[in-house]
């Protein structure tokens, strides 16, 4: 991975990472009427993610990765009903959207009532064809991930992401 690309990716991740750090206010509502939910909060509700099916040669170097960031809307039942590009390589956007539209979440609730939710979703795509969300639910009701740039097996480990103080 070139130094210029690595630096660009790290800057992108540092801009994305704080999105989950601020607290969620119930009055935050998207233009679609869905509650605005931080990425990490939404990730804690992720029940099932479907891997992205990459086009052949989309990531030409095995020991490489890409990041796609989408704007996602989830209905009251936890089904993704909309997704659009925030950032990422053009050839990876449509397959990423097709994948995310198959994801399912625990319904997001406000005051005990299921409500539509709107959040950012970041997906890592590796040179070996593997893909996964930047943040994933852990077994304790929280999230894991977001602290390093992943690399395919048999490659050098990716750099750690240091959170801003």
Q: Which key features would you list for this structure?
A:
single chain, alpha+beta, TolA/TonB C-terminal domain, five-stranded mixed sheet, two-stranded antiparallel ribbon, 3 helices
What would a concise description of this structure say?
By secondary structure, the chain is an alpha+beta fold.
Detailed description of the structure:
The strands form four sheets. Strands 1, 3, 4, 8 and 9 form a five-stranded mixed sheet that branches. 19% of the residues lie in helices and 29% in strands. A hairpin with a 5-residue loop joins strand 3 and strand 4. It has a single domain, classed as TonB (TolA/TonB C-terminal domain), CATH 3.30.2420. It has 165 residues and is α+β, with helices and mostly antiparallel strands. The radius of gyration is 16 Å and the shape is globular. The chain has three helices and eleven strands, in the order H-E-H-E-E-E-H-E-E-E-E-E-E-E.
Give the helices and strands, then pairings.
Blueprint: H1 3-16, E1 35-36, H2 39-44, E2 46-48, E3 65-74, E4 80-87, H3 90-100, E5 104-105, E6 109-110, E7 113-114, E8 117-126, E9 131-133, E10 135-137, E11 143-145
Parallel strand pairs: 1-8
Antiparallel strand pairs: 2-5, 3-4, 3-8, 6-7, 8-9, 10-11
């Amino acid at each position: 991975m070139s130094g210029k690309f690595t630096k660009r990716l790290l800057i992108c991740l540092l801009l994305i990472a704080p999105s989950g750090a601020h607290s969620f206010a119930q009055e935050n509502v998207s233009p679609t009427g869905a509650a605005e939910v931080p990425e990490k909060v939404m990730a804690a509700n992720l029940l099932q993610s479907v891997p992205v099916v990459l086009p052949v040669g989309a990531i030409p170097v095995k020991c490489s990765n890409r990041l796609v960031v989408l704007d996602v809307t989830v209905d009251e039942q936890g089904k993704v009903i909309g997704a659009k590009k925030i950032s990422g390589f053009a050839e990876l956007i449509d397959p990423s959207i097709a994948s995310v539209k198959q994801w399912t979440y625990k319904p997001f609730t406000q005051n005990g009532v299921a409500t539509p939710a709107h959040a950012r979703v970041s997906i890592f795509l590796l040179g070996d064809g593997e893909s996964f969300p930047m943040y994933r639910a852990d077994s304790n009701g929280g999230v894991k991930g977001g602290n390093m740039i992943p690399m395919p097996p048999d490659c050098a480990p990716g750099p750690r992401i240091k959170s801003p103080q």
